[in-house]
Amino acid sequence: MRKVSHEWQKYLQKGFIDKKYWNDFKENAQAASVELKEVKNYEDAMPIIEDIIAGAEASRLAAVGGGESEELSRIYKNLGQKYQVYTDKFEIARNAPSVDIGISTAEFGVGETGSICVDNYSYEARVATMLPPINIVFMNKNNVVDTMTDAFEILEQVFDKGYTGFVTGPSRTSDIERVLTLGVHGPSRLILFAVDGME
Which of 101, 161, 191, 193 lies at a CB distance of 3.0 to 4.6 Å from 35, suitable for a disulfide? Predict the structure, then answer.
């Protein structure tokens, strides 16, 4: 899968990430309606994901990032035994209108805002994160920076061309009679798995 950078971790470790920013990130992410799940590993996420799928009566998933993570690839393979899981970019593109849940990864979180930074250079990553009504994202729990200023300093180092984004909770708008509505222009649910032992 094409990415803006395959070396995010190298730049994050240059004094930007610290566990002490986690509590701010958690508080601000939950205030932005992120459904936060703290898990020790990918395996612990599996039953939670199956509950989400069952609760949403979902059957079709677009799943990206498995090529960079053996554990995530295993999750997709296991889900594929019960559900239709699209991991190929052409399959994702063809089936985008009927996908119920998108699964992807985030590079890091921002304590100040509760936002997550996503490397969405590839078309399939953009589809998986923006079109389905439910967006499930995996992030290394240790990858949290303090401020948006820090986040942009990291982007300055890794970015050459492509597309990255900051996601702060599910899609929301209040332009219809000033009533806050979730999911009008994108996913109505953002479920973030913060993984302790993530690669």
Answer: 191
Q: Tell me: the pLDDT tens digits for 107-128?
A: 999 999 999 999 999 999 999 9
C-alpha to C-alpha distance for 72 and 46, rounded to whole angstroms? 10
Look up the pTM and report it. 0.90
Superfamily of the domain at 8-195 = NagB/RpiA/CoA transferase-like (3.40.50.10420)
CA distance 51 to 58: 10
Q: Express each pLDDT in 147-171 by its tens digit.
A: 999 999 999 999 888 889 999 988 5
Asked whether residue 55 carries a pLDDT value surpassing 60, the answer given is yes
